[in-house]
Amino acid sequence: MDPQQWSAHGNPPMATLGPTAPPASMLDTVAGYESIPMGGEERYLPPPVYPGPNAMGGQSQPVQQWSIPSINEDTARQALIKYASDHVTYSSRPAEEMVLKEFKPYSMYRYCLESFTESRSPEWKSEPYQNQIIDNYGYPPPPPWEVAVDVPKMFEKNKKKVKVPHTASVKGCHRCMAMGKVPCNKCLQTGRMKCWICSGKGFRLGDERCNHCMGSGIQSCKNCSGLGCQKCNECQGRGQLFFYIQLTVKWENNKFEHIVEQQCGFPTERFSKVTGLKLFHDQQIQVYPIMDFPDSRIQQVSKQGIQEHWTQFGKTSRIIQQRHTIELIPVTEVHFQWKRKDYSYFVYGTENKVHAPEYPGKNCTIM
Hints:
- β12 (318-338) and β13 form a beta hairpin.
- The chain is mainly β.
- The strands form four sheets. Strands 1, 2, 3, 10, 11, 12, 13 and 14 form an eight-stranded antiparallel β-sheet that branches. A two-stranded antiparallel ribbon has the order 4-9. It has a two-stranded antiparallel sheet with strand order 5-8.
- The protein contains three helices and 14 strands.
- It has helices at residues 73-85, 93-97, 296-313, and strands at residues 99-128, 158-163, 169-172, 181-183, 192-194, 203-204, 208-209, 218-220, 229-231, 240-260, 277-284, 318-338, 341-348, 353-355.
C-alpha cells in the first residue's frame, strides 16, 4: 500500500485542524471595544468630540513688519554666472558681458499649515500563553481614547502598539483543539513516508535491495520524527493562547501648503526647492485664521487650510498640535541686454537660484 494513502485506509487523523483565525465566539465582549477585528485590519476610531475651528474664540500671533528684499547688480550677475557654470553646455560670456537694465521685485508668499494628528485603532491579538499576567479581574478597561500613551516628538511621523489594560484572558488554542499538537501535513500522521532513494519500491537497479530503507520502501517521516504529529505553531505546543486587545496609535504630520503669487510668468513649482524669509510663525493646540496680513489672499488661504484639516482629520484623528507659517519668497525679474538684444531671467529664493529659459548662451559655440 502506498504510504501516502495510508490515512485514507484505516488511519484517521488524531485531531482535526481548527480554523486558522479564532472564531468570534472565542473573543470576549468588552465594553467600548465591541465588534473590533482579530488582527490585520486597522479601523480607526472617532476621537472625543471637541470644539472645531469656529467654536472657540482666539486669534493668531501678530505678523511682523517687513519689506520686499531687493538684489543689487553684483548679486544678479554672479547668480547668472553660477547658473551658466552649472550647465556643461552653457557659455558664461552672456552673464559676464551683459548690460543690466531693470530689476522688478515681486511679492510671493508661501503659506504652510501643519496639523499633528493622532489616530487609534484597536484589534484583538493572541500569542502562546507563557504565564503572562492576566489583569482583567473585576477591572473595566479604559476606553480607547483614555489609554495612556506617551506622545512622541511633535510633527514627526511615529507609531506605537500598546496593550489595553484589563482585557487579557486565556483560552484553549482553536488551531489544535487545545492539544498542543497537530497532524503532520507531510506523512498524513502515519509517521512514515516513501523512501526517497528507491521511490517506495524497496530495491534499486534491478534486484539490488535499497540499503536506505532496508528493502521496506518506507522511512520515518523527518518532518515529525516519525511521530505522526508536530507542535502546533499557533500556541507553540502549549495548548493555550493569551488573548488581549492591542491599540495601534499612529501620529502623522499633515501639511497644507499654498503659494500666493503675483502673475509674472514664473513657474511656482520651483518654489519647492528654495527657502524664503519667515514672516510669521504660530504654534498652538489650535491655530486660528490669520486676520491682519496685508495681502487678503493669505487670510482666505489660512481660513481654507484650517477648515480643510478639521474636515479631513477631525472625524478619525485627534489634532494634538498645529502650526502655520508665512514665508516671503524673494523673486526678482532681471532685464538685460547682450549683443543688442533684450533678455530676462528670474532670481528667486534666499539661495538666489536662477530661472532663465531664454538665456542666450545655451551652447559653447558662441564667439
